[in-house]
C-alpha cells in the first residue's frame, strides 16, 4: 500500500516529503526470518536496502569530520538525548545485586522491565504530534537495542536495532537530512556511552561473540563510522590507533579511538592477542581501505549471519517486502 524509496526520506534533502502520510498504517514489527533459507528474503527486502542505505548515507556525511566539529542540533535530537539520559539515570537507580555468578547481573532485568514498560511513552515524546501513531512500531526497535533480558547479553544485533530505530525516525520525518552529523555524533555516541555503562554495570555477556576473531565483543558501527571520520587525515594513519598515546590524545575527536580506549580499559594483555582483528586492521595502509573493508565485513559478519538476523523485526517502516528495483 505504500511506496518504498531507496533512502529514508529524512535523508533525501529537506524538500523530500516523508513517504509516511496521514493515512499510513503502522504495524508492530515481528520476526520474519525463522530458518536459514529465509536469509535470501532478508537480503532482497526493502528493510535491507533502507537499513544499508541509512548506514552508508551517514558514512558519507561523516567523512573527515571530528566529533567536536560544528553541526546543527535539532529539537528531535535534544529529545533523543533526553530519552538516553533517562535510560542512563535508570542504571544509577538500579544498582547490581549480590549474586554468585560474576556475569549477567540480574538487576539488568529490573532495569529492562522499566524500559519495556515505558518504551512507547518515551518514543511518543520524541515524535511530532502528527506522527504519534508510529510510536508502538518504532518503540519495538528501541526495546531490542539494549540487549537481551533473558540471556543478559548484548551484541551487534542489538546495535543494529538502534540504527533501525534511528532509520525509522528518519522515515517518519522526525529526523531530517540536516540532522546527519548529530544522529551519529550526538545520538549514537550517547547511545554507545549508555551501552558501555550497561555492559560494565551488569557485566553483560557478549552475544554470539567470536572472541578474539571478532572485531569487538559488543559494537561494530562505530568502527565503520569512526574510520570514515579519519579519511584523508593529514597525519593519523591506521597504524597509529594501537598507540596508547595517540588514543589518549585524540579520542575526544574520533569515535574509532573511543572504541579502542574502551577495549584497552576492559581487556588485559597485548593488544595483538585480545583484539587480533583490530591489530590486523592497523596494518591496512589507508583509512579509506579500512572503511571499505569494514563495510564488507559488517555485511558478511553481521547482516548475513542467521543467528543475528533471526531476531530482526519487520513492520511497515522496515518492510520484509522485496525492494523496489
UniProtKB/TrEMBL annotation:
GO terms for molecular function: ATP binding; metal ion binding; peptidyl-prolyl cis-trans isomerase activity; protein tyrosine phosphatase activator activity. Its EC number is 5.2.1.8. It comes from the Eukaryota. It is found in: Cytoplasm; Nucleus. Keywords: Acetylation, ATP-binding, Cytoplasm, Isomerase, Magnesium, Metal-binding, Nucleotide-binding, Nucleus, Rotamase. One of its GO terms (biological process) is mitotic spindle organization. Coiled coil: none annotated. It catalyses: [protein]-peptidylproline (omega=180) = [protein]-peptidylproline (omega=0). InterPro entries: Phstyr_phstse_ac (IPR004327), PTPA_C_lid (IPR043170), PTPA_sf (IPR037218). Its main location: cytoplasm. It is an enzyme of class 5 (isomerase). PANTHER family: SERINE/THREONINE-PROTEIN PHOSPHATASE 2A REGULATORY SUBUNIT B, SERINE_THREONINE-PROTEIN PHOSPHATASE 2A ACTIVATOR. PPIases accelerate the folding of proteins. It catalyzes the cis-trans isomerization of proline imidic peptide bonds in oligopeptides. Acts as a regulatory subunit for serine/threonine-protein phosphatase 2A (PP2A). Modulates PP2A activity or substrate specificity, probably by inducing a conformational change in the catalytic subunit, a proposed direct target of the PPIase. Can reactivate inactive phosphatase PP2A-phosphatase methylesterase complexes (PP2A(i)) in presence of ATP and Mg(2+). This is Serine/threonine-protein phosphatase 2A activator. It comes from Sphaeramia orbicularis (orbiculate cardinalfish).
